[in-house]
């Protein structure tokens, strides 16, 4: 009689556990990073000899072997790899778009202001001594200088924004690595095949997903569930976290930007803070994207600085070749400090300082504007090239971002189809375990009734 009690009790206990697991699955069906739990039930081991030393012919009921996660390591690895590619492409696309906005091109943008300046000089050439038109021309030059300075300042702001994002990403990466080190230590202390172990594995894999969008990683899961993380872009597999030294980070990330806007990503050795390895070309993920786009924007800033400096030189040289309506030699109309386009400015607001004349006629110098300032090496052509190159790069980056995002979404859907919760399946399993639970409870009730009947015989 004790056997049937034990069998019934084991059924109530373990099928109740299975129902609890289904409840956990259902309640977390929409929880990011949650992997479906499966209960493995096996026959309880036979207890040995029964009454009078005879071998028992009945078993001891059911027992829970383990609670496992529905997880496919290959699918998870593919998600992490595509997440790294998508993160890199997204960073490039977002900031190239910001650079496109910063260049301020269009009907009211920098290139339009430049064209307006040259148009005003053409108008001035028809009446070079007209004070109103002189004022309009110097005002147009001032607007052009301000527009160039504005675009240059905006591009610098883009560089600053890239640096801020890099700093934020590095902070999150280092925090995730620290948390993963703690998760490794907790996994070692936690019995495998338990709810707690499954929860830690969920946390581990969610952190790996977060990391993989920011850096390219190889994640090697040991048999005990701990993870070793190496940087995928390095030939020797730069170790970031060891699975054997639980709680110990092997390295932390740093980010720095020079005055030109070039971004450098490093990994500082945990045991030697002076050892900071340059990982700019191998970080992967959004960090690599930030390095790439930072370099592109830095080159654009350099090109704009050169174009602005050339514009200052060309305008001043042109004006120096003529004379003003009062007969004075033309002086500098523009200034720039250390070749920095953000500092370009007019030297005067007096339109009569424009040297419109030359030795041949009162508007002779104005008639030379096109040949002196509007050629293939003029500011308009240089700025148009800068805008065009940026537009092409932005378009290409957007396409790449879309394609890599689609690949990531496909990989994530495949993984989730293997590890996610299907409510219809869970409902069927729930019905099955409820019936088994109720039957086990009925066995207990029958055993208790029978035991009571036997006791009433005495």
TrEMBL record:
GO molecular function terms noted in the UniProt entry: structural molecule activity
Q: Does the keyword Secreted apply?
A: yes
Which InterPro entries does the record match to this protein? Flagellar_basal_body_rod_CS (IPR019776), Flg_bb/hook_C_dom (IPR010930), FlgK (IPR002371), FlgK_helical (IPR053927)
Q: Which residues form the Flagellar hook-associated protein FlgK helical domain?
A: 97-333
What SUPFAM superfamilies would the database entry show? Answer: Phase 1 flagellin
Record-linked Pfam families: Flg_bbr_C, FlgK_D1
Q: Where in the cell is it found?
A: Bacterial flagellum; Secreted
Q: Which family, according to UniProt?
A: Belongs to the flagella basal body rod proteins family.
Q: What is this protein called?
A: Flagellar hook-associated protein 1
């Amino acid at each position: 009689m004790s056997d049937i009690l034990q069998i019934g009790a084991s059924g109530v206990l373990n099928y109740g556990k299975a129902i609890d697991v289904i409840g956990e699955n259902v309640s977390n069906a929409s929880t990011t990073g949650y992997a479906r739990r499966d209960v493995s039930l096996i026959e309880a081991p036979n207890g040995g000899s029964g009454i009078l030393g005879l071998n028992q012919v009945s078993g001891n009921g059911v027992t829970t072997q383990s609670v496992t996660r529905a997880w496919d390591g290959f699918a998870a690895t593919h998600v992490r790899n595509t997440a790294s590619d998508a993160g890199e492409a997204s960073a490039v696309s977002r900031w190239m778009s910001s650079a496109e906005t910063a260049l301020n091109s269009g009907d009211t943008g920098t290139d339009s202001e430049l064209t307006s300046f040259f148009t005003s000089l053409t108008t001035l050439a028809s009446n070079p001594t007209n004070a109103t038109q002189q004022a309009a021309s110097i005002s147009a030059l001032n607007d052009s200088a301000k527009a160039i300075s504005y675009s240059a300042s905006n591009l610098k702001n883009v560089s600053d924004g890239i640096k801020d994002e890099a700093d934020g990403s590095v902070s999150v990466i280092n925090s995730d690595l620290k948390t993963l080190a703690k998760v490794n230590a907790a996994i070692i202390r936690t019995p495998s095949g338990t709810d707690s172990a499954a929860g830690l594995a969920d946390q581990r894999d969610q952190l790996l997903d977060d990391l993989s969008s920011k850096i390219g990683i190889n994640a090697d899961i040991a048999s005990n569930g701990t993870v070793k993380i190496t940087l995928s872009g390095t030939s020797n597999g730069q170790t970031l976290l060891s699975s054997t030294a639980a709680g110990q980070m092997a390295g932390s990330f740093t980010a720095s930007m020079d005055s030109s806007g070039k971004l450098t990503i490093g990994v500082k050795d945990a045991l030697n803070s002076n050892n900071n390895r340059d990982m700019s070309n191998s970080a992967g993920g959004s960090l690599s994207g930030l390095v790439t786009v930072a370099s592109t924007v830095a080159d654009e800033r350099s090109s704009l600085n050169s174009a602005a400096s050339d514009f200052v030189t060309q305008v001043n040289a042109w004006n120096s070749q003529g004379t003003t309506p009062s007969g004075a030699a033309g002086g500098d109309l523009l200034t720039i400090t250390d070749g920095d386009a953000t500092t370009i400015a007019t030297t005067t607001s007096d339109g009569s300082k424009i040297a419109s004349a030359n030795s041949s006629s009162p508007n002779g110098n104005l008639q030379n504007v096109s040949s002196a300032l509007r050629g293939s090496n003029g500011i308009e052509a240089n700025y148009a090239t800068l805008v065009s190159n940026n537009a092409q790069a932005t378009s290409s980056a957007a396409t790449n971002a879309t394609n890599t995002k689609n690949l990531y979404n496909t990989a994530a859907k495949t993984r989730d189809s293997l590890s996610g919760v299907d409510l219809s399946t869970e409902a069927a399993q729930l019905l099955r375990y409820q019936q088994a639970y109720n039957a086990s409870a009925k066995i207990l009730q029958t055993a208790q009734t029978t035991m009571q009947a036997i006791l009433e015989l005495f």
